[in-house]
């Protein structure tokens, strides 16, 4: 046990110097770095991050690498196949539409205007971008005194398919004539003359015939 007397009065205190020296030496040995520790050269290691291995990469087996040329060829081949199939389907729809159009024309000539409308409508189910089908159906509507329906068909042609279509303008004029809308009738005649100035003789003949039908 430690003595409670004053250190100078304790004989064991005389031995304190050697004890302190030992402690100081021990501290110096702990604090002083070894030569190995003071080296500034980086230690080489397989785990060391360098400019070469900073980015993570995956080495791919050349045998398993994707063949871009093959993929491109496959894609283009598929596009060609799809285009060919669409063309074939379009031709088939046109063939069917032609059959219904001819049936509609036959019904129109026989005065079967309602059935003509049905035939032209069936044709339009197959081909929706044919001005002839809309124009023929509009004329059938005019014969049935369904003037507003006729105007709708003519407007579709003029707005979506062919803004200068002569018969669409003339049949539109006929429909407005049937509705006693003289202003719209005159407007149609003005535009058909403007767009087809080289066919004024035919236009005048059509107008005369139309007026005689009233």
From TrEMBL:
GO biological process terms on file: axonemal dynein complex assembly; sperm axoneme assembly
Leader peptide range in chain numbering: none
Record PROSITE patterns: TPR, TPR_REGION
Keyword Oxidoreductase: no
GO CC terms of this entry: centrosome; cytoplasm
First and last residues of every TPR repeat: 97-130
UniProt organism field: Drosophila mojavensis (Fruit fly)
Coiled-coil stretches: none
Highest taxon in the source lineage: Eukaryota
Annotated transmembrane regions: none
Protein keywords: TPR repeat
Keyword Lipoprotein: no
Protein name as catalogued: Uncharacterized protein
